[in-house]
Every structure is written in C-alpha cells, then in structure tokens.
Write a structure and sequence with these properties.
By secondary structure, the protein is an alpha/beta fold. It is 39% helix and 17% strand. It contains eleven helices and twelve strands. The protein binds 1,4-dihydronicotinamide adenine dinucleotide.
Amino acid sequence: MPIFLLGMGKPTIAILPGDGIGPEIMDATLGILAEVGFEAEYVTLDAGLGAVEKGLPAMPTETIERIREIGVALKSPTTTPSGGGHVSANVALRKALDLFANVRPAKTLPGLKGPFSDKNVDIIIVRENTEDLYAGIEFMAHPDVAQSIKVITRAGSARLFEYTFDMARKQKRKKVTVVHKANIMKLSDGLFLEEFYKAAKNNPDIESDDIIVDNCCMQLVTRPEKFDVLVTENLYGDIISDLCAGLVGGLGLAPGANIGKNCAVFEAVHGSAPDIAGKGIANPTALLMSAVMMLHHLGYHEIADRIRNSVLRVCADGKCLTIDLGGKATTSDYAREVVMAGK
Ligand code: NAI
C-alpha cells in the first residue's frame, strides 16, 4: 500500500525525472500540482540515461526497491537505444514490480482540431504489461537467425481480465473488447481469448466481445466511437495505444498508469522526444494527466478533477497551446495557463 493515510499528512511519491524532455515536463507538472495546493513528500530517484552515466543499470535496484516501499511513482520517459545498448528501464521496472496492467485512456478533448476531432473518442486501453514478446526471451538460434519467444500465461491473462472488468465497472463502462490474433496464434492468443471469455462469464453485467487486431486498427480509424474498453496483449497494446493517442490529438496528450498488486507507476504514453529535448516546447499534458490518474488513485479526487477541468478549458480556448497541438506556447506558458484556468 502507498505510504500515507488519508487525513494524516502528506503522501510520499517517488519521482523519476527521466531523460530528454522528461525533466522539463516533470518540472511543469509538479509546479502545477503545487500551485493547485497539492502537497506531497517527493523522493527523486535515478533511472534511464542519467543512471547509466553514473555507472548504474538503467533501472537501478535502489530505485525499484524505493518505489516498492513507497507504493506510488510518477515517472517521466526514459531513453532506450534501439538495437544494442542498455535494456529498457521501463520493461525492467514493470517486470520487477510486477506492474501487470498498463491503463491508457484516450478521450477527445473538446476544441482541439485534428483529423478525428469530429469523432467522440472515449476509449480505455488495458495492456498486459509483463508477458508476450516483451518477456525479453531473445536469442540467436544461428548467426543468421534471431528468435524471440512470445509468452502468454493463464495466470497472467486471468489477473489482467479480472482487473479490467473490475476497472470497467468502477468507471461505469459498458463493454470490454479483447483484441487478439487467435486465428493465427492459436495457442498463445487462443489461451488469452479463452481466459477472457471465462472472466466475461463471471462479469455478466458488462458486455464483452472480441476483435482481431488488424480489423481493430482499421475500425479504430473509421469508427473509433464504437469502442469502450479494449484489453489486449503487450505488443498489440503498445501499438494500439499510440494509435489511439493519435486519434485524440497526439502523444503529448496521452496519459497512462502501470498497475500492480501493491504498486502503481504513472507515466505518459510518449517517449523522451530527443528531437525537442532542451527546447522548452514539450507538451506536459500527458504527464500532467498521468498525475491526475495518480491523484485519483491516492484518493485526491477533487484536486484531480480541478486540474483536468483546467486542462479542458485551456484546450477548448485554444489560445495557449504547445507546438505539437498547432500553437506557439512554451511548456512553461502552457503550465501557467493551466494554473490560471483553475483560479
Ligand atoms: P517519442 O514518443 O519520444 O517521440 C515521438 C514524436 O512525438 C517525436 O516527434 C516527439 O517530439 C513527439 N512528442 C513526444 N512527446 C511529446 C510531448 N510531450 N510534446 C510534444 N511532442 C512530443 O518516441 P520515439 O522518438 O520513438 O522515442 C524516443 C525515446 O523514448 C526512445 O529512446 C524510446 O525508447 C523512449 N521511449 C520511452 C518510453 C517511456 O519511458 N515510457 C515510451 C516510449 C518511448
């Protein structure tokens, strides 16, 4: 459980400032939280390139243990080199803390212009976070043949679906759709699908159905408003959640939460955006909305709603938007506007 008791002082929150635009959007987010009167004990921890440069692993054991102890973390993106280099700090963290469900809401923000702004998108993607091709079992079977093993377990699937139906009920959602490719991967995705329908049988108050991943992608860009909660495997979820972020205005707006039994780590869907790092122009909304999810998790619903409403007002007004949303505002201009919108 998180280190705090309601009504008995400030919560303790682990902070991972991350790489690239990470520290910039973290400063903006914590600044907004402070301005709206949220007080916490922040414990800043190493991760990513910063840790590697100190001779530590990208996700140091000390960081993992502190998050385990504290129970709640707000994390900025960390850089992972493609091909060689250090292993992903995220994958290491999710595995070590068994953060099995990655929850990524994608909701149309009124007022924002984009190719899908006339659609009423309101989807929650729940992505399995520890198994599948991300289990990290890769080897060279031969100098010219690389193999990656896809792992789907009955227990891992069952707990994901149990969490998803429970979350759907709490958030007053009507339907859960499982996304798979069981027509081709008959054993792995077949097992995933089988466990889904077992869970669906135990949750008859919520509608359930399934869709093949390629058809799902096509329907997401033609009729996104028909989807409610999507639950899927790690790789499909990684791709689909970026697609859904694109439906509602881009990566700068997409928040997320990694949920485990005793720990939760809140982070934006996007990466460290090295192309714009250090320029002060990153959009902090995705991390800020991840912090809003964290505030709900900690029971600070009123402050969470206030921040969300301020973001909605600034976006609808359209006068102070960051460059990714077609505006000219810097990260700090935007953060100031969000604070003002709440006054
Ligand atoms: P990315 O998400 O960092 O960037 C993709 C594009 O979106 C870029 O043009 C970037 O400028 C833009 N963008 C992303 N976030 C933005 C924001 N808040 N405001 C404005 N524009 C934004 O993806 P990319 O380039 O594939 O990955 C860069 C690094 O991030 C890689 O090392 C990757 O491994 C890492 N990464 C880390 C994640 C995490 O820590 N959770 C998640 C995804 C990627």
